[in-house]
Amino acid sequence: MSKWEIPAKGGNMEAANGIYYQNMNNLEVAERLKKNDVLLIPVGSTENHGPSAPYGEDTYLDTRLCEQVAKATGCTVAQPIWYGSHPYHHLGMPGTIIIPEETLADYLMYVFAGFWNTGFRKMIVVNGHGQDYVIPLAIHKFGKTFQVPGIILYTHFWNCAKWELETKDKGGPYDTPFIHADEVEQSWSLALFPEFCKQENAVATKPAPMLPPGHINNSAETAPGPIKWYNAYGSVGMEVICTPEGVIGDATKASVDKARKGVEQTLDYLEKLVNDIITKYPAGELPPIDKVTQRSREDIEAVIKGPTNGGRHIYTLHYGV
After folding, report:
1. CA distances from 290 to 149, 176, 236, 320 (A)
2. CA distances from 98 to 104, 140, 230, 260 (A)
3. pTM tops 0.90, yes or no
4. Residues contacting residue 284 through CB under 8 Å, at least 6 positions apart
5. 38 closest CA partner among 317, 271, 302
6. pLDDT by residue (tens digit) across 43-54?
7. Quick one: which of 75, 92, 107, 217 has the most CB atoms within 10 Å?
């Protein structure tokens, strides 16, 4: 029997149970940093997912996964980023809130800086929304701007369960391939936040590809095409024109059981990732200064010490003292 709660029985965003950073005071955070200084940062979106799932589906997928990992490992979760970047074919879809990719990348860079300055210098960004072209940019902008020792990793959680997102003919549990708000995504939603899902309202639609098959990868990045779906323009029709229902695929086929193994595999991986980081670099320890930056050791040691412990804050490396 799995140790994970599937289907999940509610969330923890307002709970005072040692999961969410924003629900803690500075004394609680200081104690937590002594034991585990890994932070999970869920990055989601607000977008149309049709009549059977909420607009916040991507964000709830992220947070519910992170909450269970935090309970298992003792790491901390940041309250999520609710608004994300979107590819061009999402433009104009009612209910979908689109943030320009440059804006989101800069926003995330400063989120990383703020948490680093607080003491969470090992961060894992957990994303379930189609903005893979933005989050790596934010990470590298942070690295180039501040050049401090730390760890920031990005996982698109769907990739943690890649082959468990496949169709039955390829060894997976699904009848239809993963696209958006469909059999796959709705199944995961039923597993992680069933209280927000209305399966009785589920609908089915037909995708609108505009190129022959074999070139463009699918949402799980497992299809044979070598071109990732977000590395293309003109490959699919716009949602607001072709699938105004907010669903691309068949959400009527969704079930918890179809998602169970993939959700478990994802949770197992995220737990291992947190534990591997904290084992390699226990709380308070960082990658060696001389291997990750050519800033002066004096400057780096000052910001590692921090502004309230006789050192300096991280922004002195960017804006000047």
Report:
1. 9, 50, 47, 22
2. 10, 22, 15, 31
3. yes
4. 33, 34, 37
5. 271
6. 999 999 999 999
7. 75
